[in-house]
Design brief:
Rossmann fold; Arc Repressor Mutant, subunit A; 6 strands; globular
Amino acid sequence: MIRVVLADDQALVRAGFRVLLETEDGFDVVGEASDGAGAVALAVEHRPDVVVMDIRMPGVDGLEATRQITANRELETVKVLVLTTFDVDEYVYEALRAGASGFLLKDIEPVELLRALHVIASGEALLAPTVTRRLISEFVGRPENRRIDTTAVQQITDREREVLGLVAGGLSNDEIAAQLVISTATARTHVSRIMTKIGARDRAQLVVLAYESGLVTPRGKGRA
């Protein structure tokens, strides 16, 4: 059972998501919030698997709420899925940097939302590929966005750079293993070590940090 909190300032949107999830097996909507403060409070109270988070809400917005949830060590198992009507939004990019595990547009098909919740609840990350590329192109090149410790970058091995490039390209551990002719367990170990070295909370944040650091370029080629 995947336990979900819905955070959106539009009651109709929340109602639509609730109906969708409650008609499907395996989902339990444990709370609804109309702003970020409410989302954080519900995350603390219920410890859901996923918070479906709108970005633009009154008071505490989805960006700040995401920061508060991901910064709380007691909520480390709580994942945030960002939904927005804007396909290029600096706030969405900042939410990913803050630790959101996924990002989708609100105009997705219902089946895509269900799949996203399954993916994120299982510990993987999910980003809309075309939107991610546009976000990277728009924001990563800015000097003020390069905040990763250069010492951490230097600790990445050549093999790990190769793996990181594939992660940034959206490949799963199984796909990385097949491409590099290694076991899935080895691929998973590489990804885990990279995340530890550069301080990424999950694969979504790992992708953002990979581009920020220059380890991966928007074309997916690692830099020397």
